[in-house]
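Extended Data, panel c. Modelled sequence:
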Amino acid sequence: MEWRDEGALLSVRRHGESAAIIEVFTAEHGRHAGVVRGGASRRISPILQPGAQLDLTWRARLDEHLGSFTVELLRSRTAAVMGDRLALAGLNAVTALLSFSLPEREPHPSLYARTITLLDLLGTSPAWPLAYLRWELALLDELGFGLDLSACAVTGAREGLAHVSPRTGRAVSAEAAGKWADRLLPLPPALLGHGEGELSGVARGLVTTGYFLRTRLAHQLGNRPLPEARQRLVDAIARYSAPSA
């Protein structure tokens, strides 16, 4: 068995004295793991950094085997994020959530394309936090837990949307929420793709996507806790968005 594809490196761990097991996200083969011979060597280990874009050739005697990768670096994203703690936290959250949530070897080409766009924004564009928030929405949608934010679930109105129902995942207008508003999740403009995506709005949006990641996605995966890397990003965005004393 053999295939060739391109993908982003999600994780790497040492295997034996000189090899490494890597996990990648590719367009045609989804989340896929394999052994890199010599992956712990001085020649190869520097390119095996999370977020790196790799040209990959996978080989195995049988399809169900772990198999081995031959890798060639296409693009490193390390330099773009190493001097930016927030962007580094974003990269770690993306790779951790993909490893956590994606079924192994199941293609998700649309999510892959969105992921590569987001990874390329990290550390290079101030728009990446908003793109990250929208990426979490896309991740929920791709895995069958999409939110319906197009209109108010109560009145059908498309204006004045301010909340999300934690029960249905549908938008609710400020008028329809009434006395129940404090029981609903926030729906900031950033979550609707409006405005410039100020960090405070992104932070509020992450409260909502985080709720559904925990109660829908993680619940289906056996109630495993979400990766700590996501919480570190949420905490970092909250710090950066807090008004100065």
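The first strand starts at residue 2 and ends at 15. This feature is highlighted in the accompanying rendering.
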